[in-house]
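[STRUCTURE TOKENS]
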Amino acid sequence: MDASRIKNEIVSGNISLGIELGSTRIKAVLVSDDFQTVASGDFTWENELVNNIWTYPVAKIWKGIQTSYQKMAQDVKDQYGVPVKKIGAIGISAMMHGYMPFDDDGNLLVPFRTWRNNITEQAADDLTELFDFNIPQRWSIAHLYQAILNQEDHVKDISFFTTLAGYVHWKLSGEKVLGIGDASGMFPINDETRSYDSKMIDQFNQQPAVRQYIWSLRKILPEIKFAGESAGTLTAEGAKLLDPSGDLEGGSLMAPPEGDAGTGMVSTDAVRVRTGNISAGTSAFSMVVLDEPMDNVHRDIDMVTTPDGAPVAMVHTNNCSSDINAWVGLFNEFAKEIGVDLKPNDLYGALFKSSERGDNDAGGLLSYAYLSGENITKMPEGRPLFARTPNSKFNLPNFIKTHLYSAFAPLKIGNDILANDEHIKTDVFIAQGGLFKTPKVGQQVLADALNTPITVMSNAGEGGPWGMAILGLFAKNKAENETLADFLDQKVFANPESVTVAPTKEGVAGCNKFIEAYKKGLNIETAAINSIDL
């Protein structure tokens, strides 16, 4: 679509806005009806560890949303010379899980508790046993039940609780709803009814610790919506909250708010049965859309859904790229010390490409990229560390390869459970995330780690917010009886640009050798947690 047509589409409001609140960045992406990115804006933020709780202040949530929107709107003015007044559809997505409880007056009762917290072990264990269904520590219901077990005073005042995406959507539209994918990270979904599992809700309500409260779980959970449905409209107050300049009008169709896992599936065209995708960022997760239930309950495998309700086996890791980013930042400081100013893509590209000269097993080096705790390896807290022996081959290529292997190590351990115990394996994973901006390097490491071909599409850097904008277009333009999978296959990804990298025999063997050493060395991480205070 040429610039003149795009300008007309913007003026007429024939556009869709996706906003995703990720772990390190909030991004707003404006998309035209032919699925092309028109403009974007972002805001960088970091979670804060306050009283041993990982959180983001509410004020920063809105500052980030407004800043990213303002930058997107300015991008439109710079490119097309017009303000953004009408938007056909808007969708909000965010980090899944976590805990945001509110009282009758809409007050947040405790600071937002993010997915990153490993503080609900007792609740997660008790509920997993009660439901015979895996409840990870980061799930919203685990946070609620742990607050009950802790006898936290705020629990008696809960009128409603939701996720970050659900909260933002509520403030923009007045609707207390969630897309089913995000809802499936709050409480288990029944695959047949495609709603919260009624039996499990009753089991929860009947627990002695829960019966003391006047609320019932069913009434405080958000209403479930499906991809393609309307989830309300942008109110005048919501428009002012999103765009304090006053340019934006209310009335936009609001798509069901989703989690970053759901938008990752959409942006990689991986919502159809037996497809798989991977998102790699601050955290990482892989998703496989199932055609039949798993045989067993696994504590390292989450059962969630696609944005249209199909069951998905999810391997989620709390840590991925943060430690790599920290080391790259150190190299950037050194570059500046010697008078060299490098753009981020050039710096990452040079370091990542050096890893291709490394040994297949990374030369006997070890790294644990645990900025926070890691459920898959049973680590309650994070202590990023690097280790080597006197005989290790300590050079730059091996150093960088070690950190790439380490970023994907928990994801590999989880996927080995799916492949070896449940015999679930896709023909290919479609991957997205900043780690894949450097062509083929991270892709090859991941292919070798999972022993599966990895495809990266041309939109790999856009990811979730673009996927959320696509869900907005689906809600706005959905044809009668059209499925999300058909919409993506036949319209959005009719002519995809992609690159697929296959695993190599040497790479698979080398990565497996690294993982064996990684598992043996986990006691180093445990010792660090026990010996080094936060």
User: Anything to note?
Assistant: The first helix runs from residue 3 to 12.
